[in-house]
Amino acid sequence: MAGDGLMLQERINYEIETALDALLQDKPGGTVTRHRLKTVLERMAKRVASDAKNDILINLKTSADVAEIYQCSKQAINARAKRLKTRFGDFGWQVSSGMWIFTPDEVEQLAPGPPGRPPQGE
């Protein structure tokens, strides 16, 4: 998942350079009005926020996707997700009775433990 963050960082750097170019065009001394600076930065922030949102949406996984990753049943993933949601509150999104959606961080938390019953108290 680190590669995804790098791509977003590259896009952020690109947007910063684009903003600087827009601000400093035809201004050899580099003087920029407050209004112009605010306008360019607002546009840049909107584009970066949109890119970040798209990155999150592209990387979401369904319970079926996670089951395939960990080579287990979708029902096992759904049961684990339900336990984690009960335990922590903010975990995944249950979009129907048999389907959940998870972020990449949540997918890692859904990795199955060792086979057998969990120890008492877990």
Topology of this protein?
Elements: H1 2-24, H2 34-58, E1 61-62, H3 63-70, H4 74-88, E2 93-96, E3 99-102, H5 104-109
Antiparallel strand pairs: 1-3, 2-3
Descriptive notes:
The protein is mostly helical and 122 residues long. It folds into two domains: 57 residues; 49 residues, no CATH class. The radius of gyration is 22 Å and the shape is rod-shaped. Helix 1 packs antiparallel against helix 2. It contains five helices and three strands. The chain has a three-stranded antiparallel beta sheet with strand order 1-3-2. The model has no long low-confidence stretch (mean pLDDT 85). It is 63% helix and 8% strand.
Question: How many runs of DSSP E, i.e. beta strands?
Answer: 3
* Distance linking N and C termini: 29 Å
Count of DSSP helices? 5
Side-by-side strand order of the widest sheet: 1-3-2
Describe the main β-sheet briefly. 3 strands, antiparallel
Count of individual domains: 2
Unreliable residue runs? none
What is the percent of helical residues?
55-70%
Determine Rg (CA atoms, Å): 22 Å
| Helix-strand pattern | HHEHHEEH
